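Possible regression after last week's pipeline update?

I re-ran a chain I had predicted before the update to compare outputs. Posting the input and the new output here so someone can diff against the archived version. Not blocking, just want to make sure nothing changed silently.
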Amino acid sequence: MRFLIQGIFLFFFISYQSLAQELRYLNHRCQAEDFLLESIEANPRNLNIFHIQEKAIRDFLANKNFSIQRSEIIIPVVIHIVYRTDEQNISDLQVLDQLDILNRAFSKENKNLYTVPPQFRTLISNVGIQFCLARLDPDGKPTNGIIRKPTSVENIGTKRADGIKVAVHFDEYGGSNSWDTERYLNIWVAEMESNIAGSATFPNMAPYPEADGIIMNYRYFGSIGTAIQSTPYDKGKTLIHEVGHYFNLFHPWGPGFGGCETDDFVDDTPLQEGPYFDCNPLDNFSCGSEDIVVNFMDYTEDACLAMFTNGQKERMLASIQLFRSNLINNQSACHNSEDTTTNNSKDFLIVKPERIDQIFIYSPEKKVLDFTVEIYTIGGKEVWREQLSQTSFHTINVSTLSRGVYIVCITTSEYFNCSKIPVF
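New output (post-update):
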């Protein structure tokens, strides 16, 4: 898409007060631009910083100045679960489910690529970024990357505590203090106003330093547990969208309300007048060319959001190298591939045989391991737990379980793996 800077200037010189009410209505999925506007309201110099950064990205991409090894882009993540009720205290399994969805999307392995129209399939990009739960905290101490904080504050993810500050970012207001925002992607999962699914900060554009990161409504996090009640936004796509903002992507219609004169600063995304909410709109030629309704940065239902473009990939990678490089330099904070995984590996295989009342756990390497087997409903409720030690093979009798799809997880001191298994 062409760089239409005039639209950006016009957008930012409109007062935040006149936009706020309309933005809250429009951004039922995303509040990222609210944070961007607040940052400029709080510090007008940030508007100049914004334009300096845009020029830096254009020059960077024109000169192809990539120096990072793209196969090595692993982002350490800390999840702050701030909960007022038991329902809001989502399970580790739901966190891992969301992380798996995020990683699949950024590696072009998401399961709904078939929803991309044929004419856009050459644009589908493998961004090549992976996300892991931090294994070391800022002091170098071991962690599982998940922080849990009880609170008494209602809608803490949108509650303003002191002017523009959001309560969820601070212990003193009932939230959870951020970890070093230059070295970790901080994600807060909490109760938010019902019409807001998530929010994020753009690089160097947080309204205050502690805000840099992402806030997610617990109802739209992942595809199991609390998310199953949030159709059509129940497949974990909101976090993908917010991570796009965190890495400097705008909505396809550009900042603000859009229109065919504004731009998202990406060459291969068509000009788009505004958001889509339905997978099959009656007209998706808003500015004379066909819009990519399935782009992760649109507001379409989760079922059909399926792709980033190559241009969006290049913009994200440029922004990481220019503005968020410390995230890459902190990769020692991540679990490495031998420590943990959310996919099957050589350590264990989970097999559902033809016999309806059994699940087999098999270790091809025949290692003697102490491990825990947990079985969850698709809604995240634990229905089975067993601690075992074996050489290679174990059978679990599931005859007492009702028919349906279950999530079977295996945990050792160095390994985690979950698989969906049907029980009939």
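Follow-up from reviewer: compared with the archived run. The chain has two domains: 29-332, 349-423. Marking as no regression found.
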